[in-house]
Structure formats: C-alpha cells, structure tokens
Amino acid sequence: MSLVIPMVILMQQHLVAAGSTLVAKKMQYDLNIRQPFYGVSPEKRHKIFKLAQAHTTINNIEDYQRLLLWLWSGIYREERYLALDAGEYYTDYQTLASFDIYLEMLDAADNVDILDRLASNLIGKVILQHRDLEHYLIQWRESDNVWLKRASLLAHLHHQQQTNVTLLSETILYLAADKSMLVQQAMGQVLNAYSQIDFDFVDSFIKNNIALLTPLCRREARKLTMMENSTVN
Fold first, then answer.
1. So which residues are the signal peptide here (predicted)?
2. CA-to-CA distance for 191 and 200, rounded, in angstroms?
3. Euclidean distance between the first and the last CA atom of the chain, given in angstroms as a whole number
4. According to DSSP H, which parts of the chain are helical?
C-alpha cells in the first residue's frame, strides 16, 4: 500500500475530529455550493497538514501526484483545500510533469476558493516555466466556462516582471465585454498585481481602454495601487 493512503486517512481522521456541523453549514451556505464541509477552520486545517507532513515524507513526484489526487477526490471541501495546501507546499514537484494533474483538478474547480489558488499558485507557476503552455490560456479565455475564463487571467497573477504583458492585455480586452462579475473582478485583480511592477503601464492601459473596461474592473485594478494620482475616474 502506498504511504500516501495512510497520510490521507490521518488527515481525514483529524478533520472529522476537528469538524463542526454548524461551521460546516455556514461554510457551505457562504460559498453556495453543494459539496459538504467538515466545518474545519483554516487554522485547524493547517495544523492537520503539519501533522501529516511529520507522519509521511513526500520525496518523489509520484507520491506528490497521488497525494493531490487522493485528496482532490475526497467528498468534503476541506480535502480539496488540503490538496491545494500540499500542491503549494511541495515546491520541487510543481513542474511540467504535474501539469496534467493540475488540469484534472481544474476540471472540477467550481468556485473562487478552489479556482483562484489553483490557477495562480500552481498552473500559473508551471506556465511561467514553460511558455509553450500559454496556448491553454488562449483556449480558456475563449471558453464558455466562466472558471476557465477566470483561470486564463489569474494564471498571470504572480508572474511579476516576467508577465507576458501582450498576452495579458489581449486577454483582458478579449474578455472586456464579458458580463460575469467573476471575470471582471479577475481582470482588475491581475491589473492591480501588475501595477505594483509597472504602474505607468497599467495606468495608461486603463486610460486608453476606459470605454471598454467596466467600473468593476477599474475599481479592482486601483484597489491597492495608490492611483489617486491618476486622472482616471
């Protein structure tokens, strides 16, 4: 038996012990999703993951991928959170070899709590290392799936100085008329992140495309950027 399975069982046992029915119902209500929760706070979940790290050593990519998929296939939402915790923690295995696993996880992403971390922290990291994978971002922005559209934007979130500004700009303008708040918010979020790298570019981009960009997108783009010096309203 793979050492990953006892590790997963350990986490599940601790999730059961730490869970709360009342908290679980509130979590499910707040996110408006069908998937059930144990009702475990992020702080308690992080402690459980530390216990699991001490219990089992993940020292090869096969076990890393097994761990992610076992957790991701769990019934409860916190198991998916733990899959993301593990995916982010074992940085050595965030490579091209794991990209198909991330894509499999993406297929089940159904809310911002899952999608945003997956797209920005895992998928985006591999795409930064392998630019030929950017064709996925183009496919996703053209999809009818709102979560794929959001992923096509948030994959750029942590690219900083290495941001493919041309692709990001094209994607934002391509999605500018999209009516989904989830897409509009993500556009503003990535603009906001890149403004910390190149404020002048983002400020000019918003000014030049003010007729295309929604107020929501512009508000999100300005949130933490001290854009009071801008003439954009």
1. none
2. 11
3. 61
4. 4-18, 21-31, 42-55, 61-72, 77-89, 99-107, 112-117, 124-129, 134-141, 146-154, 165-175, 181-195, 199-208, 215-222
Residue range 100-157, pLDDT digits in tens: 999 999 999 999 999 999 999 999 999 999 999 999 999 999 999 999 999 999 999 9
Whether 72 and 83 have beta carbons less than 8 Å apart is answered as: yes
Q: Please report which confidence band the pLDDT of residue 224 belongs to, taking 50, 70 and 90 as the band edges.
A: low
Whose structure tokens read 């404020």? 199
Query: For residues 228 and 138, what is the distance between their CA atoms, to the nearest angstrom?
Result: 33
- Rounded to two decimals, the pTM is 0.92
Check the CA dihedral 65-69-70-76 and report its sign: positive
Find out whether 98 and 61 touch, Cβ atoms under 8 Å: yes
* pLDDT tens digits, one per residue of 67-100: 999 999 999 999 999 999 999 999 999 999 999 9
How far is CA 105 from its chain centroid? 11
The rounded distance, in Å, linking the Cα atoms of 206 and 191 is: 9
Q: 1-93: what fold?
A: Leucine-rich Repeat Variant (1.25.10)
What are 100's two structure tokens? Answer: 């198909």
